[in-house]
Design brief:
Blueprint lengths: L11 E4 L4 E7 L8 E8 L4 E4 L11 E5 L2 E5 L2 E3 L3 E3 L3 E4 L4 E3 L7 E2 L2 E5 L2 E5 L2 E2 L8 E4 L4 E4 L10 E2 L8 E4 L12 E4 L8 E5 L2
Length: 200
């Protein structure tokens, strides 16, 4: 496919191969603070800049949903104020609107689901750098769910999963470093419901 119009890393993606969205990202040459709110849309062959960017410039947040019903949660921003953010924004294919804020601000999370039914887990949060905290979004507000057994950030989540069927694999948990732990989530709200598939 074609190249993005803006060079970034840590952009937040959602959608499909032929109808995708990339929001935000980091680039050393971008003032102020090196972070963008820019939104680009992909049609399977080329990217088009949407003049309507996110309300909060950020990168390494969680993204899920479709190109016309997307969700971006958390991430890291460098201004107003700098640091982890709890801000959630919803995308309708043209515009961004603010949704309910995460209970715990963080970045480098796993994510699964849709705009109105999302599961977000793990991540880098203060003061716990390698979090196991899990939250679910119902389209309006976030609520706490059972935590990961292995707190970590930067793992791979089941982006096309649901709030009752998801997994989180690998990640970084501080010294000693990376992990190959895999956990599956099954949707209960009051008891520990992650199944550890592998861990080392």
């Amino acid at each position: 496919g074609g190249d993005l119009n803006q060079e970034v890393y840590g952009g937040i993606g959602f959608g499909s191969q032929t109808a995708g969205v990339k929001a935000g990202g980091y680039n050393n040459a971008l003032p102020p603070g090196n972070v963008t709110a820019q939104t680009e849309e992909y049609n399977g062959s080329s990217w088009t800049v949407n003049p309507n960017g996110m309300g909060v410039a950020r990168y390494v947040g969680g993204g899920t949903g479709t190109a016309t019903a997307g969700l971006v949660s958390g991430g890291y921003r460098y201004s107003s104020p700098a640091g982890r953010t709890a801000v959630t924004e919803e995308y309708d294919g043209t515009n961004w609107t603010t949704g309910g804020s995460l209970n715990i601000a963080r970045y480098q999370t796993g994510v699964s689901g849709t705009q109105t039914a999302t599961l977000l887990f793990g991540g880098n949060s203060a003061p716990v750098t390698y979090s196991g905290h899990t939250e679910a979004y119902d389209g309006t507000a976030w609520s706490t769910r059972p935590s990961l057994a292995t707190g970590r950030n930067g793992g791979g989540g089941s982006f096309a999963g649901t709030t009752s069927s998801a997994f989180y694999a690998g990640g970084f948990l501080g010294p000693p470093g990376q992990t190959n732990a895999t956990e599956e989530f099954t949707g209960e709200t009051t008891s520990l419901n992650y199944k550890t598939v592998s861990s080392s």
